[in-house]
Each structure stands twice: as C-alpha cells, then as structure tokens.
Amino acid sequence: MKKRILLPTDFSKNALNAARYALDLYHEHECEFYLLNVYQRAFSTANMSVPEAGEPGYESQREQSEEGLRKFEKQLSLHGENSKHKVKLISTFNSVYDGVKDSIAKKDIDLVVMGTKGVRDVETSLFGTITVNVMKQLQSCPVLAVPNNVRFSSPKTIAFPTDYKTEFKRRELHYMIDIARDFGSFIHIVHIKREATLTRVQESNKKLLDSILDGLDHQFHELEKQHVHRAIGKFIEDNDCDLVAFTNRKHGFLASIFDKPLIEEAGYHYKIPILALNDHR
Q1: 140 and 174 inside one domain
Q2: CATH code for position 193
Q3: Are 107 and 34 in contact (CB under 8 A)?
C-alpha cells in the first residue's frame, strides 16, 4: 500500500535534513511525499489592517511560499531519483499546527516527519518548540522528529519506554512495527519501576504488548526507580539505540509521571529520531 507522508518545511537545513531522512527511511516503499509550507498574513502598521487574499501583501507571501517549495523540491531531488516516490506541494495560509492537521485530514496522511533542534537553537528555529508542540498536541497521526545533526542509518535498535498503564493497540504501534520489520530492528521495551511489582492491569498490558510484537526481536527491561528522562537517555546511550518510540496519550505515561513530558524533554535533548505514536482516529 502506498504511504502518504507529510513533510512540513520552513526551507531550513533542518527541514531538508528531516525530509532526506524520510526519503531514505522509506526508500523501498511506494510513497507520496507532501511538502507543506504555511504562511501567515502580515499585519500592516500603515493602515492597521491584515492583508486579505488578492491584496499585494497576501499575494506576495503566497508567491514566496510557492517559490520556496519549488526550490525545496529541487534541493530534495538532488538526494537521488526514486521511481517509487512522488512529491507534491502544499502552500497554505495557516498556523503550522493547523496546517499540519488540515493536511492530514485532506490528504489522508499516514506519517508526519519534521526536523527538531537542540534547546540552544529553539529560539532561532521554527522547528524547535513548534515540532515539540505538534508532537504533543497531534492525536490523529504519528510524528517522526529528526534532530538536525542526524544522518540516516538503518534503525537496527529501537527503544520503547512505557509504564504499561494503558492498553496497547496494534494500529497505534503499526509504524514502529513496520520499521522494525523493514530493517530487522531489535526493540527494547523499557519500564522504570515505581513499585516493587506490576499491578494486574500492568501485567495484562505487558502480555498484550508481547503478543503484538510476536515475531519481532524484542526484550523487556526493568530499570530501578530514578529520574525517568535521565534513565531512558542513559539506556539509549548504553544500548546504542537508533530510534526512540513511544505512545503519546494525553493522560498516560508521558503526561502523568514525568517532571516534564518525555516528548518535550526528548524533543530538545535526545540525539536520535523520536517517533511519537499517535493514532486516535
């Protein structure tokens, strides 16, 4: 089945790097890649008005967006031709989040791939806090965030942190499972112990996860109670993980047990791609 992948871009090197990562990750798949650029009407101090469609200020921004997309597509084509891939352009007046959300609905998008930078670069990059906010808020589609300095290499080892408190859905884990199958990845399921033993619900959910991952190389790990972000970061480093994936639920693991949600911490500090598994359609 053809995959539809959304690549939001602000025309930065960061966005180009993430787009190239997506092309390599799905090199063997039939894909439609949608390059998305959003623009917003500039407020005019001369007459205290906001330009409307058809007015010079508005049309200038639209033209800049469309021209930027054409140049970005050309840059991306230098990465190499692939007969299985098609690229389409979307230029729209919107906020980044709403532009992404609308594109997912209108184009039946399967996955969003965005760039993210370290905390020092957040103030100067569109894809710093915005990428993190998209990952946190988006519920309809998984999001893959690619750090600026990461070049593609086969994701042979995946870390999957969880607290086992909510049921797993095969559909929700679909993209992690697909990547593991494509590249023969080993999945490390990482749990930070809060109590001496798991509850019956947690045990049940752990068994469910084991059954969903049946046929894939995977292992369960129990880490002693400690600061979760640091523990997972150390585990990723010690096990040379290439990707970290987790389910992103409003009232689940990420939102409840961290001093800061992992998605926010990871968006700024982890040095490997982050796959937020959102699928609540």
Answers
A1: no
A2: 3.40.50.620
A3: yes
